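ok trying this again, last paste got cut off
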Amino acid sequence: MENTADYSSVDQNGLHDRLSSYLVFRDPAMGEALADVPRFARSQEPVLLQGETGTGKELVARALHGLGPRAHGPFVAVNCGAIPDTMLEAELFGYEKGAFTGASRTHRGRFEQAHQGTLFLDEIGEMPPTAQVSLLRVLEGGQVQRIGGEREISVDVRVVAATLRPLEERVESGLFRQDLLYRLQVLPVQLPPLRDRPRDIGLLARRFLSQSLQGMGWVGATPTLNDAAVARLQTYAWPGNVRELRNMMARLAIRVSPELDELGPDWFDTLLSSKGNRNRNADQGVWIPSDATLAEAEFLLIQEALRQTGNNRRAAAKRLGMGERTLRRHLNSSKKP
């Protein structure tokens, strides 16, 4: 079995104890990334979580909430990339009855719902410009005004935001306000991808497998992965990070037999080899004509991502490092070359 008590120079023993209710980790890279989280939890300033999809940003947000003075207040999560632009402000800030067609009742927005608690804004980079202005006002003044309302409502909310890629890129392209970026990243946390925390792969895989088997009704001891199996898992890049590992262990749980005590690398050879082949094929790139315009090149890249993901727009957007709404805008504005 792997050694799960090997810590870096950071006080990870105490750190792990404080975070163990929210996150599972032993790798020094993750410990370094999370070292400030207990201290940040005591602050009321905004936190900006950065990291690839599936790295655990919402879990860290919940830890920031649960370890701080707002632990007994509400934790409200919003995926800014999953709500249409026209509805996001209404969802965040609320609206009065009759404010627009279909507003048959007064709606308390997510800021009001999170009063005296924490509001987690995932995929903050996908927030449209008008909502960014309103968000900056709330962060500066602590008040919201419902759509169609005439009065400002005081809210006491700690904001934790998350992004897949650096917001500086969005600022440079004119899609995100620089002043809002400065306000959000008072306390930054950069989460490492799973491939950069190899010591956690076995720890997480064994836990996910056990949880999946127990969820299927297994009682008593369950099969576990031997060290050779863990070493095999560590050879894969895990583009979907912890989420992908969890899903793989759920699929494995369906295949194993009750009489097994441990599982070796042969359980993963076929699956990981096929994943690796797909990744290598993708790495060969997409052929783009030398006279193609930028819009045409974007179209070709998006079409290839859609082909590789079976026309799954959400998965294609993640593969391309963009939000689903951004991908949809590209598709609507692009023309096939």
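PB: full thing came through this time. Residues 36-192 form a domain with the Rossmann fold fold (CATH 3.40.50.300).
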